[in-house]
Design goal:
alpha+beta, GTP Cyclohydrolase I, domain 2, about 30% strand, elongated
């Protein structure tokens, strides 16, 4: 019997120091960013066979997210979230859907605010 399973892998609260923002000072000083990613795909075969080649390597995903956050400069965290999601879908053919949250701690809003967050998800057509 053919089954369609729904499953996902999450990496939660990855923390990076990066230099994004609308203000020039944000590009100079930088800030702490937190990222969550949810990778949706059917990992049944990987689980049954205990085979990493049938799933997503978390270390590779982490490195790709770190690279996107720390080697490029963006004005908007929305752009960061979008680019990471697109890169992951392109680089991992097993993925059906990617959901990503990018949080900027202590955003410059002239008041008290724990973080600003951009939440983006996309899937294959």
């Amino acid at each position: 019997m053919k089954r369609h399973a729904k499953s996902c892998v999450r990496l939660v609260n990855m923390v990076f120091y990066a230099h994004h923002g609308v203000r020039k000072e944000e590009h100079t000083v930088g800030a702490k960013y937190e990222v969550d990613v949810e990778l949706s795909f059917d990992f049944t075969e990987a689980a049954i066979n205990d085979d990493i080649t049938k799933t997503v390597d978390y270390g590779t995903v982490y490195r790709k997210i770190k690279e996107a956050l720390t080697t490029k400069k963006y004005f908007l965290i929305e752009a960061v979230a979008y680019e990471i999601a697109q890169d992951l879908l392109r680089d991992f053919s097993v993925l059906d859907k990617v959901a990503i949250n990018v949080r900027k701690r202590n955003p410059p809003v002239d008041g008290i605010c724990d973080y600003a967050e951009a939440d983006y998800s996309t899937s294959r057509l």
